[in-house]
Amino acid sequence: NPISVDSGSNVVTVFHRNHGMQVAQGVTLSGVDSAGVGGISADTLNKKYNITSMDFTGYKFTADSSATASV
User: Fold this and answer.
1) Per residue of the chain (71 residues), what is the pLDDT tens digit?
2) How many angstroms separate the CA atoms of 11 and 65, rounded?
3) Complete DSSP assignment for 9-67
4) What is the DSSP letter of 68?
5) pTM of the model
6) What is the model's pLDDT at position 1?
7) Dist CA 11 CA 17 (whole Å)
8) Which of 27, 38, 43, 62 is deepest in the core (most CB within 10 A)?
9) For strand 11-15 and strand 48-55, is the pairing parallel, antiparallel, or unpaired?
C-alpha cells in the first residue's frame, strides 16, 4: 500500500518515488480502498489536499481526521 499513517496522527504519507510534486501543491487521491487506511475513511482520503512536506520517496499531507491504527 503506498499510503501510510500513524495511530493518533492526521498526517498521511504517500510513497510515490520521483513524483515531481512541491510543498503547497494540491494532490487529489482517488481509488482508496473502501475500508480506508488506518481508520481514516476512504471518503476522507479520496479528495484534494495540499502537500505539507516531500522528498524523493513521496509526500505528506494533513487529513481531516486522525488514524486509529498505524499502517
Assistant:
1) 899 999 999 999 999 999 999 999 999 999 999 999 999 999 999 999 999 999 999 999 999 999 999 99
2) 9
3) --EEEEE-TT----TT-EEE-----TT-BTTB-HHHHSSEEEEEEEETTEEEEE-SS--
4) S
5) 0.95
6) 86
7) 18
8) 38
9) unpaired
What is the 8-class DSSP label of residue 7?
A: T
Count Cβ neighbours within 10 Å for each residue of 22-33 and write b for 16 or more, e otherwise. Answer: eeeeebebeebe
Cell numbers representing residue 1 in the block: 500500500
State the amino acid at position 42 in one-letter form.
A
φ, ψ dihedrals at 36, nearest 5°: 75, -165
